[in-house]
Design a protein that fits this description.
mainly alpha; three-stranded antiparallel sheet; 8 helices; Ribosomal_uS15_bac-type; ribosomal protein; Ribosomal_uS15; ribonucleoprotein
Length: 248
């Protein structure tokens, strides 16, 4: 390998690659220059190769606002909300008991309870479809924020898709049984219910290109027809033969 490299550098130094511009190899731009000694003669022992790498630029992702932003940092945790002595403590202890020092799980628990309070039927309701849909909504939004920061986390993405399918099934059943409750849940939780397609077909590149071409031809024909530039279609041979023998 060393001998082969020496031979190649020797050939380059003798002038075989002289007066050549930069060569592109794949995504690399390689520029070969002749090494010249102090006397002006080419040096066969050196070879300069400048490699410029063009790395792919990452696309800027759209930032999703967190559902926990509306929680005030001075709000106490769930287990200290009804305690009377929490107001008598000093500021340092209050800060330790507030959401400012709370974990993500504790904040998510409070947010889930807030969503449940909006849709539950009575104060003791814990297992109704509305409550379960609210809990799934908080979990789905938390998964979405996590996946937006860590897009390669396939395990949590799979859990999020499973939770979405489960919530979609529960919304469908609630819509068929109690439509007023379904509308109330969608309005309070900010859910936009869309009907599933009648059939699913995987969109290939060929199908997309064919559909785009058909739409382009249809729009062009519609424009020409509106302008009066579209010629009328001539009758086909079969129709002309049929009309020739018929009595008037």
């Amino acid at each position: 390998m060393l001998c082969l490299r020496r031979i190649v550098c020797d050939l380059w130094g003798r002038g075989i690659t002289a007066n050549l511009g930069p060569m592109c190899v794949g995504s690399r731009s390689v520029a070969c220059q002749r090494a010249v000694t102090e006397n002006g003669a080419p040096d066969s022992r050196t070879c300069l190769s400048l490699v410029v790498r063009n790395y792919a630029q990452t696309r800027r992702r759209q930032e999703i606002p967190s559902q926990l932003d509306d929680l005030p940092p001075t709000m106490l945790k769930t287990e200290y909300t009804g305690v009377q002595l929490s107001d008598a403590v000093d500021d340092v202890v209050k800060r330790l008991l507030s959401l400012e020092m709370a974990s993500q799980a504790e904040k998510l628990k409070i947010k889930t309870q807030q969503l449940v309070d909006k849709v539950k039927r009575d104060p003791h309701d814990t297992r109704s479809p509305e409550v379960r849909i609210a809990a799934l909504t908080a979990k789905i939004r938390n998964y979405r924020e996590h996946i937006q920061k860590h897009p390669k986390d396939k395990s949590n993405k799979r859990k999020m898709l499973m939770a979405i399918d489960k919530r979609k099934k529960m919304l469908k059943n609630l819509r068929l049984t109690r439509y007023d409750a379904f509308e109330h849940v969608c309005a309070q939780l900010g859910i936009e219910y869309t009907f599933p397609p009648e059939y699913y077909r995987r969109a290939t590149r060929r199908w997309l290109a064919k559909k785009a071409l058909c739409l382009k031809v249809y729009n062009e024909a519609k424009r020409l027809q509106a302008a009066g530039l579209l010629k009328k279609r001539r009758p086909s041979r079969v129709q002309s033969k049929e009309t020739q023998g018929k009595p008037v």
